[in-house]
Amino acid sequence: MNMARKRNEADGKSRGYRLCLLLAGILLVSAVLLSGCGAPKAAEPDGGAESSSSASETAAVDDGDACVIAADDFSNLQLSDPTVPVYDRYTLSERRAKGLTTVMPDLTPYKEGKVVYLTFDDGPDDKNTPAILDILKENGVHATFYVTGQHAELHPDVLQRIYAEHHAIGNHSYDHDYKKLYTSPDAFLSEMERTDEIIHGILGVRPLILRAPGGVIGHFTKAYEPALKASGYVEHDWNVSSADAAPNHPVAQDFIDNIDGQTDQPVAAHAAIILMHCSEGHEETVKALPEIIRILKAKGYTFGVVTPMTPQPW
Ligand SMILES: [Zn+2]
């Protein structure tokens, strides 16, 4: 009798323990699905296994929703908070293989008051991008990084840090080669897909936003827009340019003046999308950034990150 009771108690304890484990597991999965992407994933066999120490520090101090992961049918993307990045857990080839849609639905843009989107193209590098991330963190603001596949491959740890610190990541082609990119929508999209695969290999998610290198004007024909939509991408150019990539070697004060002047124009009153660069050679952009953020805050802007719901700049 005693032995049997003991065994029953033991079984009961073991069942309780298994139930607790199951509940903890469900809670953990729900937390990941709901709050999204506080830290880079660690489960893929190649790449992305280690988060940098700075990334984990930030994940610990940051709060709020990390990001939103698109539903299988993209039905959860009509959002109203312009500060939360949005990603897809599947690559396009995974969506095709699973029979899931790849087409981005029509979305209503954010109707927020006065939002500025700081965007940094052509990175990540291992010097200017981390310096920019430090400044953004010090100022408590978020930004959008349009990365190339080539740079993501070279600096996966910096890409992980961008992600872990809740900035948005967009696709900016594999190697920024206009001649290859703009021969046809298919050529453009196959480079974007290649870059998605690289980003997905590092983070476990792919961007739903992209920026055409050099902008769409003079590059896109009418055929590009429907092709992008069919592949679940939304493109954003900019309406404020720091001109930090101008050929005459401008300096930090020029970028500050450009942004200060252009954000007073009516086109930027509702949504100012600012073009800057964070790659090699852009030390002057790093130098200008604290003053740029100070001016934008003084003008009453809040800081958003680009998502498929971000209003078009024009
Ligand atoms: Zn670029």
Automatic annotation (TrEMBL):
Cross-referenced Gene3D superfamilies: Glycoside hydrolase/deacetylase (3.20.20.370)
GO biological process: one example: carbohydrate metabolic process
GO MF annotation terms: hydrolase activity, acting on carbon-nitrogen (but not peptide) bonds
UniProt cross-references to Pfam families, sorted A to Z: Polysacc_deac_1 (PF01522)
Protein name per the record: Polysaccharide deacetylase
Ranges of residues in domain NodB homology: 114-304
Species the sequence originates in: Mitsuokella multacida DSM 20544
CDD domains cross-referenced by the UniProt entry: CE4_SmPgdA_like
